[in-house]
Amino acid sequence: MTLTVHHLHISQSERIAGLCEELGIDYELKTYKRAPLLAPPDYKALHPQETAPVIQDGDLTLAESGACTEYICHIHAQGQLFLPPRHPAYADFLYWWHWSNGTFMPTMMKSMSLRSLKLSGDSSHMIMTNSRFKRAFTALNDRLHNNEWLAGSSRWQISWLCSCSLPYGIGFPTVWMSTRMWPSIFSVLGGQRGISEGDEKV
C-alpha cells in the first residue's frame, strides 16, 4: 500500500510532506489549491473535518497533523523521531510535543486572524493575543538558545514539528516578520533538510 499525503497549499499539511522526506519513506503527494481562501470541494470531501492535513493508507483516512505524524512515524518508520518513556528527556518531549499544537500553533493562528481584521493595537483582544504570542515565541527561543533540539540530544519529532509551524507563517507576513525578534529560532531553521525537500514538492 502507498501512503498518500493530500496537501492543501499554505496549510499544516506542509509538515506532513516534510516529515515523509525526513524519514525517507515512499509516499504519493496530491496537491490542492485554495478556492480562493478555503479548501476546494474535492479536498473537503476527503474527511468530515474538512481540514488539512489528510493522509490515506489503504482503507484508512486520517486527519489532524499530530495524529498523522504519530501514525506515519510508528507505522512506516518504526517509531523514529519519538522518545520512549524510559528516555531521560521523555517528560520534556511530552511537554513540547503537546505544546506545539496545543499552544504554539493556536497562538499563531489567533494572531494572524486578529491582525487580518486590523484591530486597534490597544484593543483588549490584541493586547491579550500579543502577550500570548510574545510568551510563546520567547519560550521557544529561550529553549533553543542553549539546546540544539527541544528534547533529547538529536532530531526528535517535536523539534521538527515546531519548526514546520514557523515556515507556515511565511504566507502571513504580519506574523512572520515579528519572529525576527527571536534569533535562536531563526538559527535552528537554517538546517531543516526535510522541510526544504518537502517544499520543493509542495
TrEMBL record:
Classification via SUPFAM superfamilies: GST C-terminal domain-like, Thioredoxin-like
Under the heading InterPro entries, the entry gives: Glutathione-S-Trfase_C_sf, Glutathione_S-Trfase, Glutathione_S-Trfase_N, Thioredoxin-like_sf
What sequence ranges are listed for the domain GST N-terminal? 1-80
Cross-referenced CDD domains, in alphabetical order?
GST_N_GTT1_like (cd03046)
- Protein family: Belongs to the GST superfamily.
Give the matching PANTHER family: GLUTATHIONE S-TRANSFERASE 1, GLUTATHIONE S-TRANSFERASE-RELATED
The protein's name in its UniProt record = GST N-terminal domain-containing protein
